[in-house]
Amino acid sequence: MKKARIDYSVDMGFVLKQLLECTGIDYKEELETIFKQLAVEPSNLVKQELGFVPPYFGKADIKLIIIGQDPTIQNVERRKNIKCTLNLDKAGSLTRYVEQICEGLGITIENVFATNIFKYFYTKPPAQTFNILTKHLSPNLDLLKRELSSFQSVPIITLGEPVLKLLTNDRAKVLYYWGYDSKTKASNGVFTSVKAAENKLGQIIYPFCHQPSLRKHFYKDTLDLYTHYVKDSSNGVHSSH
Q1: Where do the structural domains in the chain lie, given as residue ranges?
Q2: Cβ density class 13-52: b for 16+ within 10 Å, e for less
Q3: N or C: which end of the chain has fewer CB within 10 A?
Q4: What is the pLDDT of residue 68?
Q5: Which class is domain 12-233?
């Protein structure tokens, strides 16, 4: 695969051209096709007029894949400022969180490919209407699998519980994979991943909480330990060529 040198500060047309060269995926065409397949759900309409948000593709060899949910933040006015998945082209709390994970893995944010399952906006944050995400999952999952097929032996992490539930089952919780002990309210150090046979991607997944959850002591205290588990269990972090 070609190394990315994507500049997210330029116009979207040029960004998409660069992504096409690096991934072989025409995101504009793919999203137009997905929009046509989505059932109209009046309780939370898709905002096609806002377009979509392309993945973040670091400038070095890709050694970590991050999967988010969607770009629909609560603040409607700020949605138009989102030019890249997870806003990783800008400084901010989410970028710092990803950088912390990367540091624990011995890599940098330039080694990251980050994409959302749903790359477009809804009228309101769709975690409030989870049933719609379930209904809209199939075509978006197909595109996600095509994205991931470009990378070989690269660890995959998910951000947030809704993503984990969508890819596994509605009973899944991140803290279970982080060794949560209901008696001590802390981790017992027995960490696990989602096995390939137990998720819709057919690959090993390491579930992470989303950045706001770090306000909870359990996640804050366990983050570095789980990150080290990911590094060890994936035999270090591999490169995609």
Answers
A1: 12-233
A2: eebbebbeebbebebbebbeebeeebeebeebebbeebeb
A3: C
A4: 97
A5: alpha beta
